[in-house]
Amino acid sequence: MSSTVQTHAPHAHSPHEHSGVAHAAEPKTNYLTANYGWKSWVFSVDHKRIALMYLFTIAFMILVGGVFALLVRLELATPAGDLLQSENYNKIFTMHGVVMVFFFLIPGVPAVLGNFLLPIMIGAKDLAFPKINLLSYYVFLVGILLTLTAAAMGGVDTGWTFYTPYSSTYANSQVALAAVAVFITGFSSILTGLNFVVTVHKMRAPGMTWFRLPLFVWANYATGLIILLSTPVVAITIVLVALERLFHIGVFDPAYGGDPVLFQHMFWFYSHPAVYIMILPAMGVISELIAAFSKKRVFGYPVVAFSSLAIAVIGFFVWGHHMFVSGQSTYAGVVFSVITMLVAVPSAIKVFNWVSTMYKGDVLLSTPMCYAIAFLGLFTVGGLTGIFLGTMGLDIHMHDTYFVVAHFHYVMVGGMVTAFWGGLHFWWPKMFGRMYPEAIGRVAAALMFIGFNMTFFPQFILGYMGMPRRYHFYPEEWQVLNLVSTLGATLLGISYLLPMIYLPWSLKFGKVAGKNPWGAKGLEWEADSPPTTFNFDKTPIVTEEAYAYPEGARHQPEAKVV
Amino acid sequence: MSSVDATGLAHHFEDLEQQRESATLGMWAFLITEIMFFGGLFGAYVVYRTMYPEAWDNGSRELDVFLGAVNTTVLIGSSLTMALAVRCAAKGNNKQVAGFTLLTMVLGFVFLGVKVIEYKAKYDHHLIPGPGFMYGGHAGGHEQIFFALYFTMTGMHAFHMIIGAGLMIWVILRALKNSYTPQNHTHVEMIGLYWHFVDIVWIFLFPLLYLLGRHGHAIGAATGGHH
Amino acid sequence: MSSEHSHPHITPIKIYLAVFATLIAGTWLTYWVAYKDFGWLNTPVAMAIAIVKAGVVVLYFMHVKWQSKLTMLYAAGGFVWLLTLFAFTLQDYFTRSWLPVYE
What we know:
The complex is a heterotrimer of chains A (about 550), B (about 230) and C (about 100).
Chain A: H1 16-19, H2 39-42, H3 47-75, H4 86-121, H5 130-152, H6 166-170, H7 175-202, H8 215-247, H9 260-294, H10 301-314, H11 330-358, H12 367-390, H13 392-398, H14 402-432, H15 438-465, H16 479-509
Chain B: H1 16-51, H2 53-61, H3 65-90, H4 94-124, H5 143-176, H6 186-210
Chain C: H1 13-33, H2 42-61, H3 69-95
Helix pairs in contact in C: 1-2
């Protein structure tokens, strides 16, 4: 893919051109200042405002989920089950899982960064269906309220996976209400995915061909497809669980000939691809960060683009690797195991290409890049330990141990959450027009990396030694590793709280950011910071791909603070 | 903010063509989710039918195949009237849009009415899954799973029809205000797509639920018997 | 492809009536064959009729025949994906009895 270096259509318009000479002194309005009052927010159909509403909601949910995580780690600091009773511990880790998976990991990158950036990146005024976008936010909010209600009414103790027949027949907690909450949240996800898919197909600016799209857009497109094809299946599964629970219809009840393993098939048909709903947009963020801070085109751009689609497709056919020890046939297990190995290929392609992008680039270790590099390490460890677990023989030993817990936290927290912070820092000046404090940003990123590894690396060892997950007490010889993990979790918590303090601080006290503080390529850096309500003053005409950095491009000297 | 101009073009689209194509693609994307939603139930159906073929035949013979066939005919008729409503909208003939949509709704309610009669019969015969379920005088048979899926599948289908009927009220009101033009009648088209999809679901439900275990019998022989 | 102009495709009434007749005929055909015994072909025959009926609805009533290739792809994609759900779930159920049992 060669690309010509030309400037895009809208460029540095002076206010005169729009508001007329009479208003020349007035600063140009942006999406934040276009209108005021709470109604202009709660009824807004502007994708950028909806993204911010998602951002604040999700920030609240990560705090809620974080409190549950804190309780889990505090309990596990000592071998005895002293802080919580078994029942409460079960409810706490369930709520941690439900809140983090459905209300942070899945919507995190798409609903916040995707909503804000996708239309700008393709040169559109908005998503294809702005009202549906607003609807998806309120559906999300209803899901949250129901979940919190379920928690307040006594909580759920099934684990976030709601396995039958425990959830459908035996559990004596708020399963039905939590299931309804998850069902409703699924619709929010579907509406966002649908909007993204149609937007990418139909709303691209003139000249924005598929192979000029930023990889973030490709990743969100692939995510949209996964959401459309997988989420409805878990929705109907949840309906069946609810019917089973309320009317004892027998579909998942062995007493009537129902098969609980069928629930697992239908659940994981969604919930395994859901892992890719979480990680693919995060991978899209990493592509943007690494290109911008290496001043280079992403190495092998088309391959990275197609690897997103490949992950989306192959990721659908590996779900049985969650079920190696649950009564699934050995032969089905072999098939799922082999395909699990295959999905590692496109994931590895991405990692190799990111590293190759950095090679001989002018790498600037700014805060977002620190997060991106942390992502590379953490995601690789998470991905490779996934290969261990996808191996049937090993999984018999590792299943339901802390090895699994460590593995998916490396992928989800080390991967998705790290990319989320990186992306949030990277686009923060675009979203609010202010720079965050760079030095403390790097400290937070470094602290995150240390805290994360301290928390979860010991869990690999614990799991390998056989410590099962979901128990709140353990033999004394495992205390040292558990204590290291709890201390690490404290550091990790602090590293997440830091940006929650200095980012809001920067809104008032941060340095004013120009259109393009990073000197990065891509349409979003040609819009104002913050963008106007319709993003561009006139529809841009695109003549080059998103990463058209000239050969040997360097960062501005003043960019290098350290 | 989401301003729409006199031709029906929303602010964020370049032209009506783009708006129309986006709506069509969006509707199909939504229908994909519907396919997968019902698909989960069809998947469960396939699994359990493979496990318990006899119970499936027994359960199926409890259903009233004649009412099922009549209902299929009614629903296909409603699909035709819906298609005609869309056709009239494309010509800008608002009165006929209202008429055909109303007819579609009426046929939809006929279908639902027949469904209620069928459900009532199942209730009378203790075929509602749950603690009170009895088949052939016994509780706990695998026929219960057949009926669990029968009620979930047809219930979900009926639920979709009720939503469709609600949307049609809106179409009728808009048509009475002469809102539809040859350039802008996307609402009718989209609701038409939805209604046809609901029809397709039934096209599969009818043979899969009603027509099992009758092979080799005389027509109508095993209908709703066995008590 | 009707994407060149903004006027929608208007299908002749004759086509709609022909489709309607096909669907009605299909319904009563499937009712009738349900009482014939074709052995293992019973279900395939019923499904073949249903697939033809659904295909006619998709192509004509839902206008996919006159839509862009992209819409056709999406319409087909959903059904294909559903088959993968069935296939990968059933590979478990069909092979469970193959499990070698060691005493």
